[in-house]
């Protein structure tokens, strides 16, 4: 009996992410490829050095507003899943499914492809300098790096979190090696590149949304702790602390890094460079020419690791909520990793790396990302109105979510004029989720179909008790929607609980209901 109970309790996503690991996750996710490739996009669409610096600071301030909103959402809604679960609990199942659809087919694979391409380019730069690295070689190395991260996240949550902590230090070191030489040049009086920094004739207002997309891409990652909410130790305290400290750290680092870039490189130098950090080192400190590209590549590797660590949790939670196939609600018995969810991105990212370009991919997925982030913070306002009695341990002034939501939605609307082709493709991808939702999710599945689905999931897991091959597969189904009620019938803003939940004995295991309010995750069949 004692052994069976121990085995039952062993199968859930553990609370292993401490404050330090949360801080490392945020730093590791924000400081990645963005600061090393976005300066070109920001400068190109803002026009001048001065306006580009204003855009960088504005993006940092906007990221702080968004991070504070998500910190409050994380203390109000006790589930993992990030944007998806916040939209689901505040605005309902249709917007949340559209986000899930866009996240799977557009946002996440395109974002991962951008980061992995930056990883491959910077890793190969020292070997081909002063020439550009061959595109096929860059794509091959990019894919190898992404596959390595996939393998790590399929193997161990603890090791991926430890690697994230170590790479966060590497990221900060890479920034320091750019900031220090740049500040030394600035102190020596090299200010020629800052002349006419705010020439209004070069400002193109209709391109500013694309400048903000590039800048916000560099800051993106401030929301990553919301994806692993159930795995955080003391989330009501650690989420606000982690996001505030990490975002302030990144804002200061990014501003100093951009000033360093412009101290050594002129406007045309930045626009012509395929790898800004490499061009900077060649001009400012040639002794670091073989060090900085490797550190930048490791920074990108850390960003890929953080992205996979959190995205797999989104699919995990979505399947738990009944909006994604039950297969993706399975976790590994011994390793406690959501293995199917981790591996789902493999074909899409591979395709986008092979056929995509960094800046087109960035505009393509930014529309969908900031549309749904704006909806999530709108959901915070709605949640406050619906539940005024709810006492949150962390609460931001109302003007912060209102301002953030308006800016996000305004930028999304303006981007149609700035880049109609890529933005229209992204919009079409979101809209294509409507028929899927009404044909598959909204329609009530018959009890027979649900029973067959459950049997299929269990059959995939355990081919037969005689050979117990399920132990070799190592996956256990942790939650499948109740056969009598759809998740859309459950009131939003409530936890999944079951006062009378049946257990399912199978090879010595039983599945029990998940009671999130208790502060730990125990998995099983929901009663409502």
Automatic annotation (TrEMBL):
Q: Report the subcellular localization.
A: Membrane
Q: Which UniProt keywords apply?
A: Membrane, Transmembrane, Transmembrane helix
Q: Which GO terms describe its molecular function?
A: L-amino acid transmembrane transporter activity
Which InterPro entries does this one have? AA/rel_permease1 (IPR002293), AminoAcid_Transporter (IPR050598)
Q: According to Swiss-Prot or TrEMBL, what is its membrane topology?
A: Multi-pass membrane protein
Transmembrane regions listed in the UniProt entry: 20-37, 49-71, 83-107, 127-149, 169-190, 210-227, 239-257, 288-311, 339-361, 367-384, 396-417, 423-441
Q: Name one Pfam family in it.
A: AA_permease_2
Gene3D superfamilies documented for this protein: Amino acid/polyamine transporter I
Q: Which GO terms describe its cellular component?
A: membrane
PANTHER family linked: AMINO ACID TRANSPORTER (PTHR11785), CYSTINE_GLUTAMATE TRANSPORTER (PTHR11785:SF533)
Q: What is this protein called?
A: Cystine/glutamate transporter
Q: Which organism is it from?
A: Anser cygnoides (Swan goose)
For this protein's source organism, the top of the classification is: Eukaryota, Metazoa, Chordata, Craniata, Vertebrata
